[in-house]
Specification:
Blueprint lengths: L10 E6 L6 H13 L4 E6 L13 H12 L5 E3 L2 H5 L5 H11 L5 E6 H5 L15 E6 L12 H10 L3 H5 L6 E5 L7 H9 L10 H10 L4
Parallel strand pairs: 1-2, 1-4, 2-3, 4-5, 5-6
Helix pairs in contact: 2-9
């Protein structure tokens, strides 16, 4: 049963290593929050990402960086449940936990197109829609062609695609593509710039830059 009361606003779920966090993580999710009328977006740093290399900085520092990045935006919330849980940070486990915390709100798992087209490699990926919707960010004007996606992903999308109203009026089970501002900023590039003593100004919030300097991270 996925019907809900109209006054329960969706909650955005955005995970990542945030190693470090930057404007490319922040701007698209602020726009998604406004477009879908979300109550808030929860930023959830991974303890150990299953599909990426081990983060270069500690969980403590990554949590602090996200906290600094979002402190001026009341619709952004830091969630440390994956750090506290430890081990591999499987998204399906996180969504199960969030569904227990928010049984009457639509949950929207937010991700980029690259992540979505590889989602069939995620742990128990077909269970994700049992707990949340999936909202995929696209660049404005993107001429996407689902026929270019892996066949498994094509079927997954075509079976569950939905409009905005369906996202707001059901708890889970839908997939929505949304065009939002996407910034070509890379955490890898930022780490390389820091290693090479190049400026990272205007790539991330100033408080995050100050924290990186204070702890001498990525050098």
């Amino acid at each position: 049963m996925t019907d809900i009361l109209e006054n329960k606003a969706p909650i955005g779920i955005y995970g990542g290593t945030f190693d470090p966090v930057h404007f490319g993580h922040l701007r698209p999710n602020l726009e998604l929050c406004e477009i879908l009328g979300m109550d808030h977006v929860r930023f959830i740093p991974a303890f150990l990402p299953p599909h990426r290399d081990k983060p270069q900085t500690t969980a403590k520092h990554r949590l602090k960086m996200v906290a600094q990045a979002i402190k001026e935006e009341p619709r952004f919330v830091l969630d440390d449940r994956e750090i506290k849980r430890g081990g591999a940070s499987y998204t399906v486990q996180t969504l199960k936990s969030l569904r227990q915390d928010y049984p009457e709100n639509p949950l929207c798992l937010l991700m980029g197109l690259d992540a979505f087209t590889g989602i069939d490699h995620w742990y128990h990926w077909q269970e994700l829609l049992d707990y949340a919707h999936i909202v995929v960010s696209l660049r404005p004007g993107t001429q996407f062609n689902a026929q270019q996606w892996p066949e498994t992903i094509q079927t997954f999308y075509q079976t569950h695609k939905a409009d905005r109203e369906s996202i707001r009026q059901s708890l889970c089970g839908k997939i929505r593509l949304e065009a939002v501002t996407q910034l070509s900023i890379s955490a890898t590039d930022i780490r390389n710039r820091l290693k090479n003593k190049q400026s990272i100004r205007f790539l991330m919030p100033e408080p995050v830059i100050n924290l990186i300097k204070y702890y001498n991270l990525y050098t």
